[in-house]
Design a protein that fits this description.
elongated; 4 helices; 6-stranded antiparallel beta sheet
């Protein structure tokens, strides 16, 4: 009932929180937030050459879709008694402060009974909230390659028909539309949990044709 839903310290005391399984929820309560699949996909691979040098890159764009973020902040330790029974936590996450500082229920889920039924065991229910849905559009510079072909006059002198030097950098830069500072490829778009971000790497190669 609404009395159980109102924790005395909750900043959103005027909200009636009920379990997702309650009969009061209907199809009309569902909020369509968008699709997880990109509507627009494009690549661009420019290349510039000058004398023996070459410079190329590969840009990739995905847009028109959404993703969930920051559900790692919504932990499962809450209960109808609030967060008082968290003896197994070695250190409280700083995100817990958000439950007390904000009065905007569209940004954070409530404390107490709400955390038990919306956050739920193993964060089962946080993925169904629409307040953590953000645009997933992004543009990436996946790689950039700098190459140099040595002059034939030089290579012939040392008995080599052809010699090329190549330097490549991958995962160069990401421009994301969301204001959460998240790389869409480092987030599980369905449930909003964080993944490992692909590290930047470098490759040096030398091609010799005798």
């Amino acid at each position: 009932n609404s009395q159980d839903a109102h924790h005395r310290h909750s900043p959103v005391q005027d909200i009636d929180c009920k379990p997702l399984q309650a009969d009061s929820f209907t199809v009309q309560d569902i909020v369509y937030s968008g699709t997880l699949d990109p509507k627009f996909v494009g690549t661009f691979t420019p290349e510039f050459t000058w004398k023996g040098f070459s410079l190329s890159g590969m840009f990739a764009y995905y847009g028109g879709h959404v993703m969930r973020v920051n559900t790692d902040d919504m932990t499962a330790e809450g209960s109808m008694n609030g967060y008082g029974f968290t003896t197994n936590i070695q250190a409280f996450p700083s995100s817990y402060l958000n439950y007390w500082r904000t009065g905007d229920a569209s940004k954070y889920f409530g404390n107490g009974y709400a955390s038990e039924n919306i956050i739920g065991a193993a964060d089962l229910y946080s993925k169904y909230g629409n307040n953590n849905v953000v645009p997933a559009d992004y543009l990436k510079l996946r790689n950039i390659v700098l190459g140099y072909t040595f002059p034939e006059q030089l290579t012939r002198r040392i008995g080599i028909n052809e010699a090329r030097l190549r330097v490549q950098m991958t995962n160069v830069a990401t421009w994301a539309r969301n204001n959460a500072g998240k790389d869409p490829e480092a987030v599980n778009a369905f449930d909003g949990t964080n993944r490992n971000k692909a590290p930047r790497s470098y490759t040096f190669s030398l091609f010799l044709n005798f």
